[in-house]
Records
---
Amino acid sequence: MRRLRGVALVFVFLFGGVSRAGAQDGERYFPETGHALDPRFAEYFDSHGGLGLLGYPITDAFTDPNGILVQYLQNARIEYVFDLAAGRMTPALAPLGERMGGGELKLRPPTFPMNIRPGCRFFESSGHWVCYQFLEFYESHGGPALFGYPISEEKVENRRRVQYFQGFRLDWYPEAPRGRQIKVAPLGYLHFRREGLNAALLRASEPLSPGGYRLTELRLRSAVGAPIAGGSGEQEVFLLVRDQNLKPVAGAAVTLVARFPDGVRTLLLPPTDAGGLTRGLLPFAGLAPGTLVRLEFWAVIDELEATTRDSFLSWW
C-alpha cells in the first residue's frame, strides 16, 4: 500500500478548490451515486480493486481543508499527494483503518509451538494475526499491497466481527452465502461524516457530458389525505417518485390499485410533475366501520418500475 509511506506535500495552487470543472476529459460518471471519478484517479481506481473493493464515488473530487485534492468513495478515500520515490504527484489510498482508530497494540511474535495456527497467518511487521475467511479474502484481493497490514485482531463492533487493516476494515456477515460473507466496510462514508465535511459534497451532480445521467432505480413515497376516514367520500392520494439519488422523476406513469372488500379498483393518476409528484381522488362508499382499504401504487418510466403500499381505515 504505497500511500502509507507517501508524504502529503501538496501544491494548493494546482487545484484551486473543487476540481471537477478542470478535469472534464475522460470523466467517468456513475449515475448510481451521481458523481464522477476524477480522471487523475481513474487508472489507480481500476488497479486497486475498482467498484468491488473501493465502491462508487460518493463525492466529486474536491480540495479538503488541509489543501489536499481528495475524492471519497463508499469504502475509501483517494488523495493526490507527492510521492518522493516517484518524484511527482500521484493518487494514493488514505489509511482510513488507522484514521478511524481501529489500531490495537502489537502482539509479540509467536514462538514454537504457538506459531502453528492452521488457517491463520501472523504479520510480524504489524504484530497481528489474520485468520480463516478474513485471511482468505485478504490474500485473494491484494493483501498488504492493497489493504495495508492488519492493525487489529478480529473483534466485535456493533455486534459484528470485524478486523482493521491500515487502509480498510473487513466485516463478517455469517448470514450471507458462503463466499460472500466478508465485505469491505463503508469507511469512506464513515470517515466523511466523522470529519464533519460539507454534506453538500454528497449531493448528486450532473454529468459534464450530455446524456451521462440515467435512471437506475425508482424510489417511491406515498401518502393519503385522511388515514382515518368515514364510510363514504373521496380519499386524496399522493405519490412522490424519485431516482436513485433522490432527484425527482418527471413523466412517470402511475397506477393506483385499491383493494376494497367488494373487489379491486384501479385509478390512473396524472404523470408525475417536475417535482416528481402526482395526486388524485379515489371515490368510495358503503364501507363498514373498521374496514381497511389497501392501496398499491405502481410507477413506470422507460424500462424501470417500482411499487409501494399504503392504506386507510374507515372508522365511522
---
Amino acid sequence: MELLAQERDRLLRSTTRVVGIVCALVSVVGVATSLAVPVLPLIAGFACIAAMVGALVAFGTNGSTWWTAVTVAGGLGAVTVLTAAVAPDDRGVIASALVPLAGGGLASLLMAQRGHRVGLVLAAGAGVVSLVLMSWASGTVLSAPVSGVLLGWVLIAVIAVWISRSIPRVARRIYSIGTAHRAERQASETEAQRRQGARLLHDTVLATLTLLAHSGVGVSEHAMREQAAEDARLLRHLRLGATPQPQQSGDYSLTRTEESPLGQTLESVKQRFGRMGLEVAWHGTGQVLLPKNVLDAFLLALGECLENVRRHAGVPEAHVTIVHDEAMVRAMVTDSGVGFELDTVSAERLGFKESVVNRLREVGGDARLFSAPGAGTTVVLEAPR
C-alpha cells in the first residue's frame, strides 16, 4: 500500500505539471497576440511565467513546498505585471488572456498538496489573490475573467478530491483481487501436489506394502529388500523437499550422489514451503558442497525450523541467511512473528531438541535459539564442511 501511495502522489504531481504548463502557455499566446502590453513589461511578465514553468517542472519531480511557493510567486507576478502595464481600457482583454494561467496553471497546485499544509495554504492564497487581481483588472467582481478564474479553481478542486479518493479505492480493489488470485493459485497447486503425492505413494510405497501383505508371493527376499530400500530413499528425498517427476508410471528413479550442491536443494525447500503458504527469502551464499549425511541433517533441521515458523509464528514470511567459511556452514532462520519466552518451554517437548539440535550434533554441528515475546524468533544452525 505504501508503494501505491507513492505512485498516487507521483501521478498527482505529474498531472499538476502538465496542466500548469499547458495553461501557462495558452496565456502566453493570448497575451502575445493581444499586442496590448508594452515590450519591457511584456518581457518581465514572460520572465515570471518562465520561472513558473520551471518551478512546475521541478515540482513534478519532488513535490517540494519551495517549488509551490516559486510557482505561486511567478504566476501572481506575471498577472500583476501584465495587467498593470496596460491602459485601463485594455486591462479586460489582458485579464481574459490570463484566465488560463490564473484559473488553471495556479489552480493545478491544489491537486498535489495532499499532506502538505503549507503548500495547501499557498495554493489557496494564490486563488484568493488571483480573484482580487482579476476583479481589479476587469473593474468589476462579476466580470467574465473573474468567473472564469473562479470556475477553474472549483473544477480543479473537485478533480483533486476525486483523484485522491479514487486511487485508494482502486488500490484496495487491486489488492483484494491479487489476494484472491494468490489464494486460488495456492489451492490449485496444493491440489495438484496432493494428487501427485497420491499417485507417487500408489506407485511405490503402497505397492510394496501390498506385496508384503501377500507375503511377497512370486518375489524373492532380496528383491523385496531392494524395493523397500528404494521406497525409503524416495521418501527421504521427498522429506528434503525434492519433487521427482516420473518418466512413466512407477518409474521414480533418483540419482545417488555422495556430495550435493546446497543451492539446488535450498531452492527445493523454498518451493515446498511456498506451496504451503510460507514465503522463504534466501540471503547469502549460493552454492556450497556438503557431504551427503551432513547435507541431509542440515536440510532436515532447516526444514523443521521453517515448519515451526509456518505453524507458530503467525507470519507469512521467513528469512534464511546462509554463510560459510572453510570449516562450517551456518544458516540463520529469522521471522518477525509472535515469539515466546524460552524459559516457558517445557523440557518434555523434544521436537526442537531432537529434530534440530541433536540431529546437527550427530554430524558435528549445533543449533542455537533466540526469541522473545513480540520480537520474533531466530535460530542459528551450524554444520561442518
---
Amino acid sequence: MMAARPGRHAPQALQPQLHRRRPGTAARLAGFHALVLLVVLGAVVVVFVKQFAASYRTLGARALTSELRAYVAAAADRPANGDLQGFTVSYLQARALPAGTVLIVSLPASRVATPGSSVLLSDARVTGWLAHPPTKTFTTATHVNGALTEFLVSPIVAGGQTTGTFLAAIDLAADEGQRSRVLALSLAEAGIALLAGVASAYLLLRRLLRTVGRMTRTAGDIGSGALDRRLGDQGIDDEVGQLAATFDSMLERIDTAMTTQRRLLSDVSHQLRTPLTVARGHLEVLDHTGDIANPAAVAETVTLVLDELDHMRSLVERLLLLGRAMEPDFLSPDLIDARAFLADLHSACQVLAPRRWLLATIPDVVVSADVAKLRGALLNLVDNAVRVTTPNDTIAIVCELDNTAGTLTFAVEDSGPGIPAAQREAVLARFARPGARDQDGSGLGLAIVRAVAEAHGGRVTVGESPLGGARIAMVLPASLVRSIEEV
C-alpha cells in the first residue's frame, strides 16, 4: 500500500468544512431596508443641494441683470450731448452696490470700474471679455482666485454700434459657505433618519419574528408529541396577534382531532373485542364438539356469528360517522321545509313500533341543514324513545322557533320513565347507557346526535317532558332559518 505523497491535498470528504453563520432574517431585512433608505436619502440630499446652489446662483444672476438694466436706463436718460464715458464715471461713483458686487465698464477710450475690481482684472477670462465685447448678453459662474463668482457680460450699444462691454460680477463665496453648511446639515439629518428608520425596522422585525420563532418552536414541540402547547394571548390586536390566535385555534382543532382519533381507536378496539371473541368462541365450540356435520348446530352457529358481524358492522358505521364529525365537509347543507320534513319523519316512525305518535304544531320555516344527518339524528332519538316505552306510551315530535333566544329546537318527547337528573349528562357520552333496559344498543346514538347538533353550531339538551318522560332536544341557532324571500 503506497503512502500518500507529501504536499498532496487530503480527500475532499476528510476536509473540515467551515460554515459561516448567516445573519438572522431581521438583520438581513433591516440591511436591505437600510440600503433602500440610503439610496433614497442620498438622492434627496443631492437634489436638494443642487436646487439650493441653483437658487442662489439664480438670485445672483437676477441681481446682476438689475444692475445692467439700471445702467442702460440711466445711460438712455443722460443729456443728448452728454459724454458716455463721463456719464459712466459719474454713475459708477454714485452707484451704491451690494457687498461683493463689482461693475466694470470697458469703453474704447478707457475702462471704468468700482472698488474691488483689481482681483477680477487679473483674470485672463475677464480681460478677454472686456477686450472683445460679446454679441449678446450672457451669464456664467467661474472661480476667480479660488472664489466662485457669478458674471454677467453684456455689449454696450450706442448708435447701432457696439462700443464697449458691461461686466457685472458678484462674489458667491458666502453662498458657497452656506451651501456647505446646508450640505452638512442635510447629511446629518439624512444620517439620523437612516439610523432611526433602520433601528425601528429592525425592532419591528425582531418583534414579528420573535412570534414566528415561538410558533416554530411550538410546532416543533407539537411534532414531538406535546399537543398541549399554545402561544397564548400576545396582548396585541394586529396581524401578528391574529396570526397567533389563528395558530392556537388550529392547534386546538388538531389536539381535538388527535384526541378524538385516539379515543375512536380505543373505542373501536374495545367494542369490537367482545363480538369478535363471541364469534370465535362459537366457532371453536362447533369445532371442538364435532357438531360441524350437524346442520342444525351449524345453522345455529352461523346465525349467531352473522348476528355478531351485523352488530360489528353497525358499530363500525356509527364510529366512522362520529370520526367524520370533525371533518370540515361533514355536513352538506340544503334548504329544508320544516313542516314537510317532520311530517315525512312522523309517517316513517309509525311503522317502527305500536305507540301513540304525536306531531306537534310545526312553525312554517325553511332551515339550512344537512337533511340526511338531521333525519338520522332524530331517528336515533325516536329509536331511544321506542326502547324505553311500551305500546301504551306516547312519543311526540316537536319543533319550536324562539326568536327571543335565537334558537330552533327539534325535540323528541315520550311518556316513559324519563332520565334521572344525575344521569342526563352521562347519557350523551360514547358507549354510555346508564339505566338502559336492553342490551342491544351500542351507546352511540346520543353521541351521534350531539355530534350532528354541534356540527350545525348547536347543542343537545336532556330534560323532562310534559308527557312525563324524557325530552331530548337538538337546539340549533336560529341563524339557520331562512326567510321565504331568501328561498
---
Amino acid sequence: MLKSLSFIALAGALAISAGYADQNNAKVVIAVQKTGPVNGRQMYTSYCAPCHGMDARGSGPVTPALKQKPADLTALARNNGGKYPSSHIATVLEYGTELPAHGNAQMPVWGPVLGRMDQQHPDQRLLRINNLSQYLRSIQTR
C-alpha cells in the first residue's frame, strides 16, 4: 500500500511540475467582436490590432507573447518598392503565412474565426479581404 501511495504522489508531482514547465506556452485569449465585412478599419481594429497595434506598426498588446514581432503594416508599400502589394496581401488574408510569429499558415487567432464566418456567409469572404486590404492600403507611409 505504501508503494502505491508513493507512486501516486510521484505521478502527481510530475503532473504539477509539467504544468509549471509549460506555462511559457500558454495561449493568449483575446475577446472578439464580430464585425461586418464592409468596414476595413473596424475589421482591422477587431482582428489585427491586438498583434499589429492600433498604429499598425507591430506593437499590439499581444506582441510580447509572440515568437517574432508582427510586421509593420504601414510599410508594406515602402518594402515593396513603393507599390502596395495588393495580391500578396489578399493571399495572406485568405490563406495566412508561414512566418514564425504566426505559428501555422493561418493567422493564429483570427484564421479560425474568419473561417467560420465565411462558412456561414461565403459571399462575404472576398468582401472582407478586399475591404481590409483597402484599409491597409490607406495607412501606408512613404
